[in-house]
Amino acid sequence: xxxxxxxxxxxxxxxxxxxxxxxxxxxxxxxxxxxxxxxxxxxxxxxxxxxxxxxxxxxxxxxxxxxxxxxxxxxxxxxxxxxxxxxxxxxxxxxxxxxxxxxxxxxxxxxxxxxxxxxxxxxxxxxxxxxxxxxxxxxxxxxxxxxxxxxxxxxxxxxxxxxxxxxxxxxxxxxxxxxxxxxxxxxxxxxxxxxxxxxxxxxxxxxxxxxxxxxxxxxxxxxxxxxxxxxxxxxxxxxxxxxxxxxx
Length: 248
Hints:
Blueprint: H1 5-19, H2 29-37, H3 42-51, H4 59-66, H5 71-82, H6 87-105, H7 112-125, H8 132-138, H9 146-171, H10 176-183, H11 203-224, H12 229-246
């Protein structure tokens, strides 16, 4: 599939903002407090909350849907969290934390309803086949109020591209471990990997990464492509404003 220039430019502008906005509630004091009420520490609530829509799967299956992390680290947190809270309940509590973040931050953004309409259209058009974590999250109900739903849509669409990117990485011949070293070389230890492995990335693997990035765009393009010029403008204006507030 060839992506036309205007859509390619839109994806290049919008998708990084979605990716850098949708997670911003993960470790706030308010989110941590919700997790604590469920008996979960910050890492446990992150793992079982983000992955909870998948239900009571094995830790190895959960880790495969997250990617990037050392499976022993992410799977261990998942199994520990499951002894304290059911995954679906934690997942919905976590998604509600996303909505609360939106309500606390985005209520004053002008014309945010237009962003929500555009993001809803993208989410509705997105094909979840083969995208495990996104497919599960897409089934979850979203908030009806504009600022809460706006943040939840950023969170869910972040998983859309993230799940597509995991598939693209494998199609390009990379492991998510190596992909992590390319994308986030300074975060290896935080994700459970040895920092010594970062230096072992080859030029050939970096070329595979570039291929995976292009393939990811191809995979998400049909969903974003349902937006007309006005829809793209509304989407980009909304996510730009949200990102500015969320990252400040």
